[in-house]
Specification:
Helix content of chain A: 40-55%
Shape of chain A: elongated
Oligomer: homodimer
Radius of gyration of chain A: 26 Å
Number of helices of chain A: 13
Order of helices and strands of chain A: HHHHEHEHEHEEHEHEHEHEHEHE
Structural class of chain A: alpha/beta
Number of strands of chain A: 11
Strand order of the largest sheet of chain A: 7-6-8-9-10-11
Largest interface: A-B, 69 and 70 residues
Strand content of chain A: 5-15%
CATH superfamily of the largest domain in chain A: Response regulator
DNA sequence: CTGAAAGCGCTTACAG
DNA sequence: CTGAAAGCGCTTACAG
């Protein structure tokens, strides 16, 4: 395996003028054809040293001519930089994180960094494994989306690597935290229902292990309190962010004959479940019951009826996280502003009928 | 940067008995404490050579004691293997591919391979860029989910790397193709509607640039023909796999006063759009119009009403693709059987009312 | 500004 | 079975 396979070609070779097969070209070959030392090529590549226009041009044309692409693996070993960033998400197949991942991918692609996506499944041990793996892979930084790691571990991670983390507020050297105000979002949603005239508003809570879930519940309570609406604890029901839990929550309420005119589900997925439960009981949205979700997932737009919900800027979050990481990597102090929660009013809410 | 940062620690250190901070430990340190040469350690690590139980044990205990983790970057440079596999998906945030990505992740995690996810956005140029990037990163193999690359490029890729590709049938050395029968799935769906008594069945086509879309349309036509139902070309309407295109398709049909009792949308997302259009026109599913989708996305279960659809084994597809890749990597000839299409009957279909 | 040289942490012929 | 040595393709002090 010491001797490399004979030939190699760019898959996009057909897009290039020079479409001949080529051997993997190294920095040494570039140096030779440009008549300089490998060190110089490296320095030009990295912008590490003063320019010498003549040589620079020779090198650049050699690079173009040979179609040289630096080997990131060698780069990683020698320089300690791999130009790759670990991205710990909770799930690769939740409708929620995808947009953030895409935002991150776009941002990094622009500047030649490669994201390494890996999922922690909302599990602290799993997540620890992810972090170890990413460090073993020598990533240059780590982005954690809604991690379960505790703050202390984040801080110690950050002693070696820049860290960007979402879903919490954490002040520490070498870490940027991006926090979306779930509280405000939930407050807005609840307040909107109150303004429509609702008083008996069910809250389907999210998984209490999520910080987000807690904040949203606080927002709900704060809004009711602020408007002087008594909180009926029987209307606050547990859920776990899944569609099924939303469905079961509403089934339960209905079975027990609870009275309510609106439902605020702590996320859209539970709202979908809730909607199905109402449908099964021939209750019409929004005529009989108003429904609000949280997240503004893509399916919400085409829910029946289209769901009123709190928009989470998932894609922008990804963009922001990537941008912050790049700034940290460049030694800059990131200044970012997180978008505010925004209630998207669609067709699942109306004034109560009675 | 030559001298490494002073200390480093495992994030999951707290889970270990020996929780002290540790320097990055290299194979050389392991060799020293085990009293053998680095070569021997390497060989034990890779199972590359005959055993010598005494040494093996010494090495293994040294590894445990020091908490040694091989550096994949160095490994990649020296051995030509990076233990990473490129995974080209079309989208990181489509509801469709997530499950496959997760299936792949799970399978690789078991054996210590790391997937490198990257998205091609259904764009051939973009995808070529992805492939180049993955090769530059020296991945050991590439999995392509529904790629736009043409067969010739896949073959030339496969001269250097094992390739697993879904969404087409391609016989070539060093490539495994996994093809799901969209044709049969569409046939089943259409046949089911016919059996229910439907004759005027709308087909909302997918993006004609997708092989899948074409196959599904063929399945629809074949089923009608087989049952002697005349094909009314006015009922075959264009779409592009998006919710909006499904909505527009149905709006158009309704506006033009076309008569039909059922709709088969080439994917679930268009079915959701179609459902919304029907809802807006106060047409009830399935009493007025039956609706079938394709893919069995997660939201379909909680659609209103729950959507009858053709199940696509997205997760299993991921598992299979990863398994096939592993087999190729081990020099085995993969023998895989792709699951057959399966119609999932839920509540959006019924016999026509008239 | 720019070479020559050492080194990153492994793997793998090459010789025992 | 097992060392010593060379090498993977870069980067970066170290000296000009």
């Amino acid at each position: 395996m010491k001797s490399r396979p004979g030939k190699s070609q760019s898959i996009s070779g057909k897009l290039e003028i020079d479409s001949q097969r080529r051997l993997p070209v190294t920095i040494e070959m570039v140096a030779k054809t440009a008549g300089v030392s490998p060190s110089t090529v490296s320095r030009i590549l990295n912008g590490t040293a003063g320019v010498a226009d003549v040589k620079r041009q020779a090198v650049n044309s050699a690079i173009d001519q040979l179609g040289f692409i630096p080997n990131p693996v060698a780069r990683g070993l020698a320089g300690g930089r791999t130009l790759s960033i670990g991205v710990v998400t909770q799930s690769l197949d939740s409708p929620f994180y995808g947009a953030a991942l895409r935002g991150i991918e776009i941002e990094f692609q622009k500047v030649g960094y490669t994201p390494l996506f890996i999922s922690g499944q909302w599990n602290q041990l799993e997540e620890a494994r992810c972090l170890d793996l990413l460090r073993a892979r020598r990533v240059d930084g780590i982005i954690i989306l809604d991690g379960r790691v505790d703050d202390a571990d984040v801080c110690s991670l950050a002693r070696n690597l820049p860290v960007v983390i979402t879903g919490r507020s954490l002040q520490a050297p070498n870490v940027v935290s991006l926090h979306f105000s779930n509280f405000e979002g939930a407050e807005q949603a609840t307040q909107y229902l109150i303004e429509l005239g609702h008083r008996r508003i069910v809250f389907i809570a999210g998984d209490p292990a999520h910080q987000d879930a807690l904040e949203r519940q606080h927002g709900y309570r704060a809004a009711l309190r602020a408007r002087g609406v008594a909180i009926d604890e029987e209307l606050v029901v547990p859920g776990n962010f899944s569609e099924e839990s939303g469905l079961r929550a509403v089934e339960g309420l209905l079975r027990e004959g609870k009275k309510f005119s609106a439902i605020f589900a702590a996320n859209d997925q539970m709202a979908f479940g809730a909607a199905l439960a109402l449908y099964r009981h021939a209750l019409h949205i929004p005529d009989d019951i108003s429904l609000i979700g949280f997240d503004d997932l893509q399916p919400s737009v085409y829910a029946i009826p289209p769901l009123t919900t709190v928009h989470q800027p998932s894609h922008e979050m990804g963009t922001l996280a990537a941008t912050a990481m790049l700034q940290l990597l460049h030694g800059e102090r990131p200044v970012l502003s997180m978008p505010s929660p925004r209630l998207i009013v669609r067709e699942s809410t109306a004034a109560p009928s009675r």
